[in-house]
Amino acid sequence: MKLVLCLILVTAAAAARAHDEVTGGSHNGHEHTAPHGGTLVVLGDEFAHLELVLDPGTGELTAYVLDGEAENPVRLGQENIEIRIVAPDTGGEAPAGELTLSLDAVYNILTGEKEGDTSEFAARSERLKGLEHFGAVVTAITVRGKEFKEVELRFPEGNE
Asked: Where are the alpha helices (DSSP H) in the chain?
């Protein structure tokens, strides 16, 4: 009986190690990959995601609204998404500061997106050039009739 119990424990430990190798150490097995290589921000309890992509060379910040699995675009009727960015103190000449950005809807005729029906939003700011880490708050976003307010995140870590 002790031998059987010992074999069960050894088998369970080996299975857990194999699972960690496949999932990168995650024990919940539920991970998302940002389709545009950006930072994922979860909205609600996996209700939807916002993917933020920053081009530090141009200072352009793009937000993609995605479903709960972060796989498919979700179109919104709103014209913009407001994000408050708090840049860290760089220790150099530029002190920490707050920047409020209005990411405007981007329409893509090729995907059938149009005014009042799009999943992509973007803004450009000189103050984002060269920025790699910051805290931010999505002030308000409504996805599929559900409103989310004051969603905090760290870039590039996200909030998951």
From this structure: 2-23
* CB-neighbour burial class of residue 14 (10 A; exposed 0-12, middle 13-18, buried 19+): exposed
**Average pLDDT of each block of 10 consecutive residues along the chain (160 residues)?**
42 42 43 91 96 95 96 95 82 67 92 89 93 93 97 92
Give the pairing of strands 80-87 and 48-55: unpaired
Q: CA-CA distance, 86 to 75, in Å (whole number)?
A: 27
Strand order in the sheet with 146-155: 39-43, 48-55, 60-67, 120-124, 97-106, 80-87, 134-143, 146-155
